[in-house]
Automatic annotation (TrEMBL):
SMART domains: Lactamase_B. CDD domains: RNaseZ_short-form-like_MBL-fold (cd07716). GO terms for molecular function: 3'-tRNA processing endoribonuclease activity. It comes from Clostridium aceticum. Coiled coil: none annotated. Signal peptide: none annotated. InterPro entries: Metallo-B-lactamas, RibonucZ/Hydroxyglut_hydro. This is Beta-lactamase domain-containing protein.
């Protein structure tokens, strides 16, 4: 599998950047994971023909993870009018908040599929499973498995023990690390770099990529505090960069 980072900031981007968006590809499959602001423009660099996009997965309905769906609806609709897109695009997402779920649909742009913990989906032999995270909105971490490789994306979450079991056995964990540990308190609905390191050690992982950066913090410092805990392969998400699983 190949992962391309389209956007790695949240809950707003830095100048020239985008919020959450990742393109996951295998030989026969293209999947968009999250679609925050700025992601559609980046996606079209790699997948200008939306017929080739097999599915979209949305972790949760915070705008930094889904707001470009509002614009993508128009792209789908107009590409259909111009005969450039044959089918609506399948999208997998939580059904809450209801008003956001309802708002996404526009002129049949998407085929909506609701996800829950325990949902199991297979797309061209790629298996996808979900774990509900600890976040103010209903949010899911996702595991993508193909050819004995497992890739996990955290979505947004606070630290919770159940996450460790879910990420176990993954070849790569793409994990939100929104803030430095010195700014962490119980009201922050995200992970610090140090917490990501602790999760990775407890789950016995060998490789982690940090993402979902708050633009006000130093990513170098975040990397350092994670490294102090997690001694294995650690990278930061960079927009436009590919990572192989
Ligand atoms: Zn977020
Ligand atoms: Zn969120």
């Amino acid at each position: 599998m190949k992962l391309t980072v389209l956007g790695c900031y949240g809950p707003y981007p830095k100048a020239g950047g985008s919020c959450s968006g990742y393109l996951l590809e295998s030989e026969e499959t293209k999947i968009l994971i999250d679609c925050g602001n700025g992601v559609l423009s980046k996606l079209l660099n790699y997948c200008n023909d939306l017929n080739k996009l097999d599915a979209i997965f949305i972790s949760h309905m915070h705008p930094d993870h889904m707001s470009d769906l509002m614009v993508m609806r128009y792209a789908i609709n107009i590409k259909q009018m111009f005969g450039k897109l044959k089918q609506p695009i399948p999208i997998y997402l939580p059904a809450s908040p209801q008003e956001e779920y309802d708002r996404i649909q526009y002129q049949g742009a998407f085929v909506r599929n609701i996800i829950h913990e325990g949902t199991e989906i297979s797309i061209n032999n790629m298996k996808v499973t979900f774990k509900k995270t600890d976040h103010p909105l209903e949010c899911y971490a996702m595991a993508f498995e193909k050819d004995n490789k497992k890739f996990v994306y955290s979505g947004d979450t606070k630290y919770f023990d159940g996450f460790i079991d879910f990420v176990k056995g993954s070849n790569l964990l793409l994990c939100e690390a929104n803030i430095l540990h010195k700014y962490m308190n119980e009201n922050v609905p995200h992970l610090s770099g140090r917490q990501v390191g602790e999760i990775a050690v407890k789950a016995d992982l060998q490789r982690v990529i940090l993402t979902h950066f708050l633009p006000e913090i130093s990513v170098a410092e975040l990397l350092e505090e994670t490294k102090e805990v997690f001694p294995h392969m650690l990278q930061i998400a960079e927009e436009g960069k590919c990572y192989f699983i």
